[in-house]
Amino acid sequence: MKFRAAVAGSDGIRLTMESALTARDRVGVQDFVLLENFTSEAAFIENLRKRFKENLIYTYIGSVLVSVNPYKDLEIYSRQHMERYRGVSFYEVSPHLYAIADNSYRSLRIERKDQCILISGESGAGKTEATKKILQYYAVTCPASDQVETVKDRLLQSNPVLEAFGNAKTLRNDNSSRFGKYMDVQFDYKGAPVGGHILNYLLEKSRVVHQNHGERNFHIFYQLLEGGEDDLLRRLGLEKNPQQYHYLVKGQCARVSSINDKNDWKVVRRALSVINFNDNEIEDLLSIVASVLHLGNVQFAANEQGNAQVTTENQIKYLARLLGVEGSVLREALIHKMIIAKGEELVSPLNLEQAAYARDALAKAVYGRTFSWLVNKINKSLAYKGAECPGWRSATVLGLLDIYGFEVFQHNSFEQFCINYCNEKLQQLFIELTLKSEQEEYESEGIADEECLRPGDATDMTFLEKLEETVKNHPHFLTHKLADQKTRKSLGREEFRLLHYAGEVTYIVTGFLDKNNDLLFRNLKETMCSSENPIINNCFERTELTDKKRPETVATQFKNSLSKLMEILMSKEPSYIRCIKPNDAKQAGRFDEVLIRHQVKYLGLMENLRVRRAGFAYRRKYEIFLQRYKSLCSETWPTWEGRPHDGVSVLVKHLGYKQEEYKMGRTKIFIRFPKTLFATEDALEIRKQSLATKIQATWRGFYWRQKFLHMKHSAITIQSWWRGTQGRRKAAKKKWAVETIRRFIKGFIYRNYPRCSENEYFLDYIRYSFLMNLKRNLPKNVLDKSWPTPPPSLCEVSQLLRQLCMQNMVWSYCKRISPEWKQQLDQKVVASEMFKGKKDNYPQSVPRLFINTRLGTEEINPKVLQVLGNETIKYAVPVVKYDRKGYKARVRQLLLTQNAIFIVEEAKIKQRIDYANLTGISVSSLSDSLFVLHVRCEDNKQKGDVVLQSDHVIETLTKTAMSADKIDNVNVSQGSIKFTTGQGKEGIIDFTSGSELLIAKAKNGHLAVVAPRLNSR
Ligand SMILES: Nc1ncnc2c1ncn2[C@@H]1O[C@H](COP(=O)(O)OP(=O)(O)O)[C@@H](O)[C@H]1O
Ligand SMILES: [Mg+2]
């Protein structure tokens, strides 16, 4: 084949795959299709046996998985095992449930077609276990999200609850499903499980009130008694001992070593919370379970009339409480029967047998309906939330069918009849879907003509007669009457025998009609309708009471629901798991050949194999085949324009399929050998790798280009936006500027008008800018006389501000001034008052600071100081004294104290002039430094006025005038100064200005002083 060459390139992969294959095949063959002698049943069973002994319980017939119950835990369901099967081609790994599960899942994802996995086999063959394992596989391997986790949990946890209420120990299986279950798992487009839905089929209610020897009632009863907390049991009025309850002791095996009711109870309690049960609902549910047990213990005795009376009042009390009904009403309902005849209600008492019947019917009805309620409740918690949103893509579903298996007991009743009928139907479906299309001669063995189940009006026996009449000619139907002499012995009069696909089953007709009618007396129904237990109330609807129509019989309901199931299954892509039970003893390692051969036969496995081998191992609609493999041929890749049929032709020719390897049908291609398909699959796998690389590269290119384009687009958008913004801002600014300028000009034009809308802005602005300008250019100090020119409107304000400013500067200047400096200034002020503009040498003194004193105490004779005592010297200065007569100049010191002026010569005080006696001070207006102290002369001690000269005349006089407080008595004279001497004589000093200082006695006897002219003058 051409594509082999392509495959050879990856020798490595191929080699590892082959070694894995041989390792797998060491024990028998992993696919019966590969059996040398495929027609031999012995070889088939030998292969099963060989593998079973090595714990290889799974073997394929093509794509059908045959599973043999190992009855022991095998280490093949771990997480690692799940991972090994995940996404791997069906044929690359050893046969396993997981391979089937994964294959269905992948078909669902790839083809988006609903799938179903049909698990068949007789009771105890491992169907329920297989279902659970498949569910676990999906829970672990499917993609998940937060919401999905809860869905997964609920899907898994619905099992223990349903098993507790719907499974029981039978002779065939310690955990036998007593109801049929079809579970849909819904997957979203990402392949995550997002919801689920369960359909339940006919629960074997009769088990509630009766169990065959060696069997038990439903698990929940024992679990509750074993595991329930003391408190709970007390509330429910129950005792821990199952032997106390009539409904639990019929099979005489309440305790079974393989079942741990206590543990199971914990599992169930936990599961109930996972699937959304709140505490109230759990209490209500368990109340019903308990009420069934109490009902079982209700006893009757007959009164004289033979009418039944309740003798167990205690039970009625509990029942009333648990079911939320009136005790008396319930009691009466249990022992009476109400019929409506011609529109009138007739109540008649029941005899013992009838009362027991009514009680059991109530127990069954209560339990059966509660079970259906439970399934509904679980469905609500599993519901796919997405389905409620219109516009969401609908989920694809994968169905798991786990229905009670074919079973034969010593006594087989209506339940077995229904169960086996159901299995018969499924077998038919299996045949139809796998074999029949190719093998027209395959004989459908189905019987169970539903017509025979139309109830006759009288008894079970008349029903049997009617049955005999209707189907007497059917080769698979036999009764005592119809049988020949030999077989007649093995059939009772009330029995009929059916030859099922899985073997003969003899049914006892007793109870058939009752069970079929499933009769619950009207008054009991009514009582239940008034129940205050919300579950019971929900299960019994009042409309049932008013409904005139005769209710459908159990068989009809069952038949209808089954035919609906068949439709569901037919609409899906099926996968098959055929479970085989290796022995009847539930024992590990025991391979009962007879039993197994029987199952191989009735399951039609040999036919299945033969068809696989003779026919075509693989077939697919052209569209689907082409879709899957078109990438392997350049002409069909990436799209084939013509008919799919032609496309497939081209494709297989390209792949080098040989003539005998395949056939082209009307709508499908048939491939004879699995190996052809494996090779194609392998080639696809390799092709996928390279395609994936290509797609990745293309995608990356595309992705980055998109990213780049997106960024570019974003950049341009931002740029243009920014430019726009900038432009708009600029324009706005311009507009604002133009308006402002315009306003200005207008304002300027109108500036001298009174304030109006044209000039107000301008005026405000002028004011504002004046004030701002002023703020920036305030005078720095008191001497700084600058001041901005105010606009007319602010003249007054400006003036006020200017004053304020000046005041402020002065104030702050004053605040900074030291006391010494103040004193200095005070003196300077006084000096200025006295001499400014009056005496020529005054200006020279202005910049020279006045000194505190010109002579230190060390320069004054201590004797003088001693005489002065505590009269402190405030000022001392060297002076020259001119004698009053000869005007001789003598060096003296002038001292000022608190009270007087002292003229001192060395150690001698020459003259003391008290300030009070100082009448004035005279000085010339010229630049000389002579001055005269005028002294009051009344006092003889006084020597008269004193003519002195100080080099610091301004300072000396200022201090003297201030000390003596004679500021106003300083007299600046032009020309001459007169003075008096001690004896009332006068002297005169004449002042003239000349080039240099000259002090001398003039010829006229005056003292002539020539003061130099100063430059400033
Ligand atoms: N794959 C398995 N591995 C181990 N034990 C199994 C397996 N399948 C079934 N069993 C055992 O067989 C018993 C019956 O299986 P079950 O699935 O309930 O049968 P069915 O549903 O077909 O009646 C289980 O309780 C379990 O003990
Ligand atoms: Mg089961």
Automatic annotation (TrEMBL):
PANTHER family: MYOSIN, UNCONVENTIONAL MYOSIN-IC. GO terms for cellular component: cytoplasm; microvillus; myosin complex; stereocilium membrane. Residues 839-1013 form the TH1 domain. This is Myosin IC. It comes from Gopherus evgoodei (Goodes thornscrub tortoise). Pfam families: IQ, Myosin_head, Myosin_TH1. GO terms for molecular function: actin filament binding; ATP binding; microfilament motor activity. ATP binds at G121, E122, S123, G124, A125, G126, K127, T128. CDD domains: MYSc_Myo1 (cd01378). Signal peptide: none annotated. Residues 562-584 are annotated as: Actin-binding. Keywords: Acetylation, Actin-binding, ATP-binding, Cell membrane, Cell projection, Cytoplasm, Membrane, Methylation, Motor protein, Myosin, Nucleotide-binding, Repeat. Residues 28-685 form the Myosin motor domain. Gene3D superfamilies: 1.10.10.820, 1.20.5.190, 1.20.58.530, 6.20.240.20, Kinesin motor domain, Myosin VI head, motor domain, U50 subdomain. The keyword Membrane applies. GO terms for biological process: actin filament organization; actin filament-based movement; endocytosis. Belongs to the TRAFAC class myosin-kinesin ATPase superfamily. Myosin family. Coiled coil: none annotated. The keyword Ligase does not apply. InterPro entries: IQ_motif_EF-hand-BS, Kinesin_motor_dom_sf, Myosin_head_motor_dom-like, Myosin_TH1, MYSc_Myo1, P-loop_NTPase. It is found in: Cell projection, Stereocilium membrane; Cytoplasm.
